[in-house]
Amino acid sequence: MTHAGRMAVTGCSLRTPLGDDAAAVLQRLLAGERAAAPNAHFDASTYTCRLAATIPGAPRPTKHRKFVKRMGLFGMEVGAEALTRAGAPAKGARLGLFCGYGGLRAHWDDLMPVLERQTGDARATGAWAQGFSLLHPFWMLFHLSNNAHALLSIDVGGKGDGTTTAGSNAGAQALRAASIALAVGSVDAALVFAYDSLVEPETLLSLGMSGAATSAATAEAVIAPYDEGAAGIVPGEAAAAVVLERPDDAGDRAISFISAAATADGAEGFPSPRALASLAANLAAGDTIVDGAALASPERDTAERAALADVLGPSAALLALTASTGHLGGATAVVQAILLAEALRAGALPPIAGLDRPSAGPLRPLVRAEETRARSALALSAGMPGLAGALRVEVP
Amino acid sequence: MAGRRAVITGVGAVSAFGVGYDALANGLAAGRSAIGPIRNFDARTFPTRVAGEVPIEKTSASLLEKHRGVLLHVGEAAAWEHSGLLRDRKVCFGLIAAAEAWRHARCGTAERKAALSIGLGLEQAFLEDLATALDGDEIRVGAGDLAGPEGVRFRSRVDLTAEKIRGVLGLSGRVAVHVSACAAGGTAVAHAASQIERGAADVVLCGASDSMVNPLGIGGMSRLGAPSPRAEPSACRPFDRRRDGLVVGEGAAMFVVEEESRARARGADLLAVIAGAATTQDAYRATAPRPDGSRALAAMERAVRRANLVPSDIGYVNAHGTGTPLNDMAEAKAIHALFGDVPTSSIKGAVGHLMAAAGAIELAACLLAFTRDLLPGTAHFEEPDPECPIHVIGPQPLKQRVEYVLSNSFGFGGQNVSVVLGRPR
């Protein structure tokens, strides 16, 4: 559980359910807004979980729609924007590209023409004529895990190191891999982007059946994480990107600094609080603010707070950005890297949206926004199976 | 952490030659090809009807049943079978190869802190599961439509293979899942070596598993037009003038990679040193490599440099060599530019293109260079192509002692990885 050292952020961009401008999103976070709403992507009226936090609008028109689905397109958008905003970092062979990809979906709409005329398990004679010949010619490319990465590397001319990692801590993995590439000198700038959506039929189904997602019918009825009655997360989606450079190279272009770590503890469900605390301990340097994993389960929330108190002390401020944005899966860590830096720069910590009755225990779940003079904070993310991510964010 | 080197101390493989590393090694040593008609499903009406299919009858449940002995926690098999998990061939291939590598390296309790670095491909979508969600022209996914607590998502999740390997072997280290398409297997091994060298881990179980020999996989590839149009076992002919496309394969290869002094101290057999590795990106086109091979060349150059070698130290190149017209030409240019006339081969004519697992199975093939002084051949290579000006080893392996080999893996969209292996001393 080592981390890869502190790197400078010189550009960033994001798409979240609360908007695509970090400063504006922070204002909504400070106001305690929640993006949860009845699922607008598809009819979820028969599902256990009927709420979702989705990115408003659609990706911009692009030729890449031939190869990449909606979330990948958002990922490519934020990647290109982050690089532009970074000014003039290294290019070509000195620019690496690291992608965190939450996981593939079934893409029901593509499969329908294939499936509707199949019989049995499609092992019968004639499966090609009965539908497989109707697959879109680029179906395979749509489904490739690295298609957004590959096309973005073409768009931005990134020819250096590059990899795509998967899982619900993919964003933290990508940040960490990029930091290592910078630390060993194989690239001089690293574009890190991550995207994920939990708002898909099979994901909502499984989250609902496992009890991990809320069964509330309205956003107002969702009980916040770290509340004594917490009862499940709101599935969300996001895409976010940062450009990382070595601090000496970034100079005064650095808008923040991050260190990242990722791990897995072998659990089939969410990772243990001990794993989260161990990651936090690995990064902590006198920090007194933490954005928690916020799993909205009274037992897990309580255990997480107890474990983190051993690392940060019992009075550390506890945030939960995902109470506002929804749970963002593999995109979480990169979103945290951007929004926490924004909050620290503004000197204002957002409350845990909807938190009325914090459960008893160590740490200080924020019920109201408060000012801060702190220049650093920790952030945790957690997903199944046993995957955890962490980062430390610091502003100049 | 200067001086830390990563060595391979265990290998496991599942390929068209059969289950087990010996099956792969013996098949390649005999210069055979294992490509044949698809049996896993009725492919008679598909444009592509041959594959490098693992010779296991029917279901993956029977595969695991047959090789029950290689798993340490066989009691879990029944529960998995109930969940439908065992239908996913790449999960089973990955488990079996991992268990073989673990056993081959004689790992025990002391190695259970190992990290995991796995390359995986497309998630499996089971048609029979999806069919239950259909209601006329509508897609209905409700709790009543799918039996059991592990719904579609949990059977198809991208990191499922990694999760199950970790559970079966009881590993407690970090997990990384690489999904860089056909570069994933090589990337996973390179990442493992990097962790060892940086001191982030002392033992890493790494490799890759994939299977696309199913209606969706073969159907999707066929619609893309990547496979050879010839439905015959010799369809894949890497670097041959008549090459016209790839043949899909399936399988897995896994390795135990350790810090060298640790491995020596516990008396492990050293199969190879991972001397260097590098990744680059073409940044050229989604469906074609950079024609001049310049970024592939850069990956090879950097891997050789990181191994503290010069190009003439490399005695064999295991090419990505898909058998497609453009890929082979670009790679050949890059190999020729850096290594000149070095013996080169591709095993894809023998076992097919294992997609995410390609780089892993090809690194496993490279071990023959050290264990048997054999450089694998290129099945079905008969007519040299002036556009591929390299020394292609023909169908039969070449008996030759070399000290270092280099393996290439190139993924969709131009994600390149090269890995240098050295003979252990």
Which short descriptors sum up this protein?
heterodimer, A: 396 residues, alpha/beta, eleven-stranded mixed beta sheet, two-stranded antiparallel ribbon, 12 helices, 31% helix, B: 425 residues, 32% helix, 21% strand, Thiolase-like (chain A), transferase (chain A), Ketoacyl_synth_N (chain A), acyltransferase (chain A)
Coarse structural class of chain A: alpha/beta
Largest sheet of chain B: 12 strands, mixed
What is the overall pLDDT average of chain A?
A: 92
Which shape of chain A, going by the Cα principal axes? globular
Percent in strands of chain B: 15-25%
- What is the global morphology of chain B? globular
What are the segments of chain B in which pLDDT stays under 50 over at least 5 consecutive residues?
Answer: 58-62, 68-79, 142-155
**Largest interface by residue count?**
A-B, 81 and 83 residues
Strand order of the largest sheet of chain A: 5-4-6-7-1-8-15-14-9-10-12
Helix content of chain A: 25-40%
The number of distinct β-strands of chain A equals 15
- Terminal CA distance of chain B reads 21 Å
Please indicate the percent range of residues of chain A in DSSP E strands (runs of 2 or more). Answer: 15-25%
Distance between the termini of chain A: 26 Å
- The mean pLDDT of chain B is 87
Secondary-structure element series of chain A: EHEEHEHHHEHEHEHEHEHEHHEEEEE
Number of strands of chain B: 18
Integer-rounded radius of gyration of chain A? 20 Å
SSE topology sketch:
The complex is a heterodimer of chains A (396) and B (425).
Chain A: E1 7-15, H1 22-30, E2 37-38, E3 51-52, H2 70-85, E4 95-101, H3 108-115, H4 139-143, H5 147-156, E5 162-166, H6 170-184, E6 189-197, H7 201-210, E7 237-245, H8 247-250, E8 256-264, H9 273-283, E9 289-291, H10 298-312, E10 317-319, H11 322-325, H12 332-346, E11 348-349, E12 364-365, E13 370-371, E14 376-383, E15 387-394
Parallel strand pairs in A: 4-5, 4-6, 9-10, 9-14, 10-12
Antiparallel strand pairs in A: 1-7, 1-8, 2-3, 6-7, 8-15, 11-13, 14-15
Chain B: E1 6-15, E2 18-19, H1 21-29, E3 36-37, E4 50-51, H2 60-66, H3 76-83, H4 89-104, E5 115-120, H5 127-131, E6 134-135, E7 138-139, H6 152-156, H7 160-169, E8 175-178, H8 184-198, E9 203-211, H9 215-224, E10 250-259, H10 260-265, E11 272-281, H11 294-306, E12 314-318, H12 325-339, E13 343-345, H13 348-351, H14 358-366, H15 368-371, E14 374-375, E15 391-392, E16 398-399, E17 404-411, E18 415-422
Parallel strand pairs in B: 5-8, 5-9, 12-13, 12-17, 13-15
Antiparallel strand pairs in B: 1-2, 1-10, 1-11, 3-4, 6-7, 9-10, 11-18, 14-16, 17-18
Helix pairs in contact in B: 4-7, 8-14, 11-12
